[in-house]
Specification:
Elements (H helix, E strand, L loop, with lengths): L2 H5 L2 H29 L5 E2 L8 H10 L3 E8 L10 E5 L5 E2 L4 E7 L5 E3 L8 H10 L3 E8 L7 E6 L2 E3 L4 E3 L3 E7 L3 H15 L10
Parallel strand pairs: 2-5, 7-11
Antiparallel strand pairs: 1-4, 3-5, 6-10, 8-9, 8-11
Protein name: PASTA domain-containing protein
Keywords: Membrane, Transmembrane, Transmembrane helix
Organism: Flavobacterium agri
Length: 207
């Protein structure tokens, strides 16, 4: 049988169909195997773990075949219970695969203290980033007569004057008393007015 006759024969056609069928079956089986091994189509919604204790987190994630890792503790956040989850990654509502690790950060047991920096005679622009870097909050701003405008004259906490080096809790609101920049000009004007009003020693005296 010539090659041309073989290629046009029924035997060749059946062999081609059989090969196609085998490839189709193998492809079908491979896709099912791939779906099984990658757990395709079976995703888990990450729950909201915030404000839960570590025990509650473990119980909740075990039910969903998920795991967790504590990355670190954060400075005390008063709106969250002590030792509860403050942040998590992935975020709540994210779709993940089975056995995915959820990374969490835990609220510390209480506020940490810092030493009050020396802001006296620093400008307001210098004071703000210094306070924020220490986890403190800028509170009420008041002014009093002073030559240096926006220069820090006093630091107060809950109405009480505090000094550089005093220990205070993080997240405290620090009220600042600043100079209004007017006293120098007012004094200069008053001095000038008094000089103009005074009689000159060079003027002749009435006899």
């Amino acid at each position: 049988m010539s090659l041309k006759q073989y290629l046009t024969s029924r035997v060749f056609a059946l062999q081609v169909l059989a090969a196609i069928a085998i490839l189709f079956v193998l492809g079908y089986l491979f896709m099912h195997w791939l779906t099984f091994t990658t757990d395709h189509g079976h995703e888990i919604t990450v729950p909201d773990l915030r404000k839960l204790s570590e025990t509650q987190v473990e119980e909740k994630l075990d039910q969903l075949d998920l795991d967790y890792v504590i990355l670190d503790s954060v400075d005390y956040v008063k709106d969250y219970p002590k030792h509860s989850v403050v942040t998590q990654d992935p975020l709540p509502g994210t779709k993940v695969k089975e056995d995915r690790k959820i990374y969490v950060k835990i609220n510390s047991s209480g506020f940490t203290s810092v030493r009050m920096p020396d802001l006296i005679e620093k400008t307001y622009r210098q004071a703000v980033p210094t306070l924020e870097a220490l986890g403190l909050v800028v509170g009420k701003i008041t002014y009093k007569p002073y030559l240096g405008k926006d220069m820090v004259l006093e630091m107060r906490l809950d109405g009480k004057k505090i000094k550089p080096g005093d220990k205070i809790w993080k997240s405290s609101k620090i009220d600042l008393v600043l100079g209004d920049g007017k006293v120098g000009f007012e004094e200069s004007e008053e001095n000038l007015d008094s000089i103009n009003a005074a009689p000159s020693s060079d003027e002749p005296k009435d006899e």
